[in-house]
Amino acid sequence: MLDQTNTALVRVRDLQMHFPIYSGLLRRQTGAVKAVDSVSFDVMQGETLGLVGESGCGKSTCGRAILRLYDITGGEVTIDGTDIGQMSQSDLRTKRPTMQMVFQDPQASLNPRMTVEAIIREPLDEHTKLSAAEKEAKVGELMDAVGLNRRFAKRYPHAFSGGQRQRIGIARALALNPKFIVCDEPIAALDVSIQAQVVNLLEDLQEKYGLTYLFISHDLSMVRHIATRIAVMYLGKIVELAPRAELYSDPLHPYTKALLSAVPEPDPAIAQTRERIVLQGDVPSPANPPKGCNFCTRCPAVMPVCKDIEPTYQEVTPGRFVACHLFETTGTAEKTAGYI
Amino acid sequence: MTNRAPHADADNLLVAGDPTAPVEAVKARNQWLDVWDQFRTHKGAVASLVFLIAIILFTLAGPLVWRLDPAALDIRNKDLRPIINALWGAEKVAWAHPFGTDNLGRDLMAQIMQGGRISLAVGAAAMILAILIGTFVGVIAGYFNRLDGLLMRLTDLFLALPLLPLLLVMMLLFRDPLRSAFGPEQGIFILIVAGIGITSWMHTARIVRGDVLALKEREYVLAARSIGTPSRRIITRHLLPNVLSPIMVSATLGLATAIITESALSFLGLGFPPDFPTWGKILADSVPRMTAFPERVVLPGLAISLTVLAVNYIGDGLRDALDPRIRGL
Lengths: 340, 329
Prior knowledge:
heterodimer, A: Rossmann fold, B: mainly alpha, MetI-like fold
């Protein structure tokens, strides 16, 4: 286990991202939205870690906080051996080429006033000293790599379809040869047929350039297809993290079970016999999470202890982490062991 | 990751264009040509551009052809009517003064030519100054939360100032030092441009700030930050081009306000010296005898409003031409 830890490209420890709430006459801070609250995980070199959860559970915020697009409230983020958790934005600039991001809405993530060439060239302008001709050649290569016709380089984003725009976004993320890419729901805004194209493109690029992905999505089937390991988030915390096959065949946490039971089953015979876990109530506000376990207000297997004590996020079987009292071992052993 | 998602075979069919096709050696068209093509489709803008060029030529080249001195008094030929009045009556008209003369016998056409130079120069310079200050304050206030409160209160402060008294005080305080430093006309020009410029940037600042506040939360700004683009280049590359439309609108409106404010100052006797015509001043001087000699108000008034209208249309056409979505590329 320790050996594997050494090959972790990204280590996240106790990441906290709280957005302050100001109220009253004096605009004093009266609370905080705990969008991401003590999240810890590793992303191994070359793997795809899927991050799933329902809307508003903090997936995107987590992805952005890891890239330090926000100034995080607390915790450590180590990417490629450097702790960037508390680094200043100007120092961070030199680290930016290692880590890039693909955004959810390809329409909103491309500046409508810039040509495709200018959009893909922006990272090169910022971080390299190439000549204009070299940059143009590199932009051409990138457009080839993501399957865009080079002749479209002088066009503007609005002239492209959703899938093509997402390719432009991917080409921009690839421009600096990053090691780690956060894909923030890259397929959520696309048609199903285009989703497959983009996911396959991401897989091909991963193979070709040895990329590591943090793949944020709420599409469980797509995550099952692309991810090597999957982390499930609920209300700012990771409730379960497991390798793909195990998570889908034998989910441990009650929330994961409920989430997986919501995935449509294509076979009607199986679909009829399957039990569907329907959660009651709404997600509590992240500004005012319940005492004890965050999931205790909706958990079908709730116990008295859940409403008092927060469960520990711990390894139950090798490689599987769960934060639930059902699986809590009596001692506090292994509490701080490596997070695989 | 050996199993591919469904539709994997479709992915070769639906690729954008054909990436394997040889790249043709088509030289990319200059983007400004596209802008010009789009601009030409706006009939009003093209007509306005022609008109504006004509009026600029009229004021700049006119005096070279029409050699009458706008300040020369000719009491014998005072109060001549425009030549057009010959069509319907035997009034005092003369081909030597096609636009007529004023109560001191000064030629109106020469005055409008000379006055146009000053009015256009003051209008353009004051408008550019106001737009620069307004855009700068607006972008800084919108982008940097920390400065927002301070700068916007400063804007409110300027908005709350009564402008005309402020300008009058400025004129009184700075007229003489500037005159001695730059000469009578240059000094007054600088004073008026600065005065109008620094008292009319507030609306631009507010509009730009509002737009920047909305734009800086857009994902492409976040994308630029994830690339590591520093703030100053995020502003110049991503924010400014996208707030161009409101800036353009306030610029065209600002030109009109500047010309009119200058005429108000001249009317109060605090603008250019009395023998120095501007469109606003010709207009203001003629108001007392407006019923008897309407042309003396109508002609400079028409010059001001048509110029403003033309600039407005050009701004409109330019805004459309600079927007790639409207340009349809």
